[in-house]
Design a protein that fits this description.
The complex is a heterodimer of chains A (329) and B (330). By secondary structure, chain A is α/β, with parallel strands linked by helices. Chain A folds into two domains: 2-121 and 280-307, Rossmann fold, CATH 3.40.50; 122-273 and 320-325, 2-Layer Sandwich (Dihydrodipicolinate Reductase, domain 2), CATH 3.30.360. Helix content of chain A is 36%, strand content 23%. Chain A is globular and about 55 Å long. Chain A starts with a strand and ends with a strand. Chain B has 330 residues and is of the alpha/beta class. Chain B contains eleven helices and 15 strands. Chain B has helices at residues 12-22, 37-47, 55-61, 76-85, 100-113, 127-138, 166-169, 171-175, 177-188, 281-295, 303-322; strands at residues 3-8, 27-33, 50-52, 66-69, 89-93, 117-120, 144-152, 191-198, 209-216, 221-227, 235-242, 246-250, 257-259, 272-274, 326-327. In chain B, strands 12-11-7-10-9-8-15 form a seven-stranded mixed β-sheet. The longest helix of chain B has 20 residues, at 303-322. The chains are: A alpha/beta (329), B alpha/beta (330). The A-B interface holds A 144-145, 147, 149, 191, 193, 195, 197, 199-201, 208-210, 212-214, 218, 220-222, 224, 226, 228-230, 233-234, 245, 247, 249-250, 321-323 and B 143, 145-146, 148, 193, 195-199, 202, 204, 207, 209, 211, 213, 215, 219, 221, 223, 225, 227, 229-232, 241-246, 323-325.
């Protein structure tokens, strides 16, 4: 049995990860720590787990790994504490808010001899895995262009506080597609140009933007990470879409397209419910297996750093008005 | 009165123009010209009109009120100037010309001639785009902030015609996306800067693809996708996100009619979907043009606007070529 603790329920994904741990027969969730004790206690009750008022106390138990779902800027301190306690780590994305913090997390895990993964569930979307097969198998020929979106509603809370999140929509929603593209193309982003702005909400952090990318091997691409789905009206939280253009054909994914349209007088707005196999569950299962098999999770800390670098490059491009070359200095 | 019309260029668009003029009660198509005289003859015979091997021959022999031009882009300037000097009204397929200088020459000749002139930016007459504009203008989605458009299909002429010569056609970014540039400029005003990536200079045979990012002077961000890489049929999409709401439209989902006919022995089944309409885009734009002549009005698409759409396409191509951000100064 693999015993995993959860550090903080600040990120809304934490609840889904916790449920995945409970659902997996080979995993359990013996303990939770949260900087908000009231929230931590409530979650512990709801998930039949135990709340530890002190992170050190949770890390002193015999858990083998932790999932870090604290605000982005806190990932580093929590990862370093977990590494010191020799716990394997799955960090929520973005792995951190600076490259320096991301590298420190990678170094801490390496020094402690534990595995560090980044929570990139998109790699586990079955349609994305199918695209990976088509790309790797040469069915699409040479990959010429890619076009992604990961748009969403505006999450609010600490996501819009720069000191905690490190950035708005571009930080929140660039890394998933950046990672997916790196994974599919087995290539690194070479150039990033971006338009970034705050247009939907009256706040001091970006809520929209679009990136144009070029990869080392010449594949061109674009990505839209905007919080452009109207919070009250949109039928689902957002989207994950990807188009790949090759010399032998194209493939298009709309990951949440396996949807059922729900019309209810109780809700007024239309709701899209989905019935695809859960990529979040597959990702947690991969982390649990990685611990059991003593291997790296599907997406590593380095993958987290490289995806973060694309988001940071987008901000730099928007600031300078020029395309930005990677790796960032 | 009846307007006497001559068409130049007897390819697919020339056929569309001809059909549109022929269906108007106050227009009569008298002749067709094409640099390939055999094609002109074949086209003319099928329509019981006269054939010419060039516009100059046609103008020398016929008394025309309107010349409709649907020839390869680099020939637009010369043909439009010939027609202007013959004092005929001119309907010109988009883009207005291949270069900004050529477009300016055309405009100046048109002004001197005092004839009516319209470039076939047909999307302005498309009912779905007009509906999008109406919804934006109603204010229901608030102030538009992020726009995404797609115009995707296979390579025109499967890359074997002049379209496949990107120096001539400008590839998907000029030939196809000039439609999107035109209506976006019409809706949202001037562009401030553009950055683009595309395949146009990469020499991939029969395939082009472009991703164009435009920042408008009003702050709007627009992502414009153009593809000549699709294996499936042609489609378009548009999404406009504003600070109060969002509208989305994908032509692949706007198909009121699907026809499934049991295939003949030995044939493979092909589903067929249609959007039945009483008037084609070509008919709507040409009907408008003819009305403007009759009523002495300025057509909806002005020469200056067509030149701005061209300028944005050329800036996108320049960005693709140089990897630089191009700032538009107009």
């Amino acid at each position: 049995m693999t015993r995993i603790g959860i550090i903080s329920f600040a990120h809304m994904h934490a609840l889904g990860y916790a449920r995945s741990l409970l659902e997996l027969p080979q995993a359990e969730l013996p303990g939770i720590w949260d900087e908000d004790a009231e929230r931590g206690q409530k979650m512990a009750e709801r998930l039949s787990s135990r709340f530890y008022p002190s992170l050190d106390d949770l890390l002193a138990t015999d858990i083998q790994g932790v999932i870090i779902t604290s605000p982005n800027a806190d990932h580093r301190q929590h990862a370093e504490a977990a590494a010191r306690a020799k716990k394997h780590i799955l960090s929520e994305k973005p792995i951190a808010t600076t490259l320096e913090d991301a590298q420190a997390m990678i170094d801490a895990a390496k020094a402690a001899g534990v595995h560090l993964g980044t929570a990139f569930p998109c790699r586990h979307i079955l349609s994305a895995k199918r695209i990976k097969e088509l790309v790797a198998g040469g069915d699409l020929g040479e990959i010429l262009a890619v076009r992604g979106t990961n748009r969403g509603t505006m999450p609010g809370g600490w996501f819009t506080q720069r000191e905690k999140s490190g950035g708005g929509a571009v930080m929140d929603h660039t890394v998933h597609i950046a990672d997916l593209l790196r994974y599919l193309l087995e290539d690194e982003v070479k150039t990033v140009y971006a338009e970034v702005d705050t247009k939907f909400y009256d706040m001091d952090i970006d809520d929209c933007g679009t990136l144009i990318l070029e990869f080392n091997k010449g594949t061109i691409g674009s990505h839209d990470p905007s919080w452009s789905r109207p919070n009250k009206a949109y039928p689902i939280w957002g989207d994950v879409t990807l188009k790949v253009v090759g010399t032998k054909g194209t493939v298009e994914m709309d990951a949440l397209r396996q949807r059922i349209e729900v019309y209810s007088n109780e809700k007024v707005k239309t709701v899209w419910d989905t019935w695809n196999e859960s990529s979040g569950l597959a990702m947690i299962a991969d982390f649990v297996s990685a611990i059991e098999e003593d291997r790296e999770p599907a997406a590593t800390g380095f993958d987290g750093l490289k995806a973060l670098e694309v988001a940071l490059a987008a901000y730099k491009s928007a600031e300078t008005g020029e395309p930005v070359e990677l790796p960032l200095k | 009165m009846t307007f006497k019309v001559g068409v130049v260029g007897v390819g697919m668009m020339g056929g569309n123009h001809c059909r549109a003029f022929q269906s108007l009660p106050d227009c009569q198509v008298l002749a067709a010209a094409d640099a390939d005289f055999n094609k002109a003859q074949e086209f003319a015979q099928a329509r019981n009109i006269k054939a010419y091997g060039s516009l100059s021959d046609m103008l020398a022999q016929e008394e025309l009120d309107i010349v409709s031009i649907a020839t390869p882009t680099p020939t637009h300037k010369e043909l439009a100037i010939q027609a202007a000097r013959a004092k005929t009204h001119i309907f010109l397929e988009k883009p207005i010309a291949r270069t900004g200088e050529e477009a300016q020459e055309v405009l100046s000749e048109i002004e001197t001639a005092g004839v009516k002139f319209m470039v076939g930016h047909v999307v302005r007459f498309s009912p779905h785009y007009l509906k999008v504009k109406e919804i934006i203008d109603s204010g229901v989605i608030g102030k538009p902030a992020v726009v995404r458009t797609s115009r995707c299909g296979g390579s025109p002429g499967r890359g074997k015609t002049w379209y496949g010569d990107f120096e001539k056609s400008g590839g998907v970014v000029l030939d196809t996306l000039v439609h999107d540039f035109d209506y976006l400029l019409w809706w949202f005003g001037d562009a401030a800067r553009v950055y683009a990536r595309g395949l146009v200079y990469k020499g991939v045979e029969g395939i082009d693809y472009g991703l164009v990012l435009v920042r408008f002077k009003n702050g709007l961000i627009a992502h414009i996708e153009g593809s000549w890489a699709e294996v499936s049929g042609f489609f378009t999409a548009i999404e406009v996100a504003g600070d109060k709401g969002l509208i989305t439209l994908d032509s692949r989902e706007a198909r009121p009619l699907t026809i499934n006919l049991r295939p003949a022995e030995g044939k493979t089944f092909r589903p067929q979907s249609e959007v039945p309409r009483t008037k084609s885009g070509s008919l709507l734009e040409i009907e408008h043009f003819v009305e403007c002549i009759k009523e002495d009005r300025e057509p909806l698409v002005t020469g200056e606007e067509a030149t701005k759409a061209l300028a944005l396409a050329l800036a996108a191509l320049e960005s693709i070529k140089t990897g630089k951000v191009i700032h538009l100064d107009s």
